[in-house]
Design goal:
Blueprint (H helix, E strand, L loop, with lengths): L6 E11 L3 E6 L5 E10 L3 E9 L2 E9 L3 E10 L5 E7 L4 E12 L1
Antiparallel strand pairs: 1-8, 2-7, 3-6, 3-8, 4-5, 4-7
Length: about 110
């Protein structure tokens, strides 16, 4: 069987961001396993990914005192429910990039 390659389903860049972020990144058309990869620099603070899995609303919080944050978060999402991003940073401006890939769809 050929290897499956992750497919990018959403990406967003916030460059020189002067305020906190709270927005929908994408809404999955199909339920499945996804991965969010994020990189942030320029400020300390918290970054939160919200989604809905089979158990209900979920949230993954990344916080820290380092001004550079990078992480990759696998998550399962149901179809038709938004995947959201909030970033509450301590200082401005900051940069944040996020890429969401589908790993395995139902």
């Amino acid at each position: 069987m050929p290897a499956k390659v992750p497919n990018i389903v959403a990406s967003e860049k916030f460059v020189g961001q002067e305020s906190n972020i709270s927005q929908t990144i994408f809404t999955p058309a199909k339920a499945g396993l996804y991965r969010a990869s994020m990189y942030s620099d320029g400020s300390t603070g918290t970054i939160n990914l919200t989604f809905t899995d089979d158990a209900g609303s979920e949230s993954i919080l990344a916080s820290g005192s380092a001004s550079v944050k990078t992480f990759s978060l696998p998550f399962r999402s149901v179809a038709g429910q938004p995947v959201g991003l909030t970033a509450s940073m301590d200082t401005f401006p900051f940069n944040l990039s996020i890429v969401i890939e589908s790993l395995e769809l139902d």
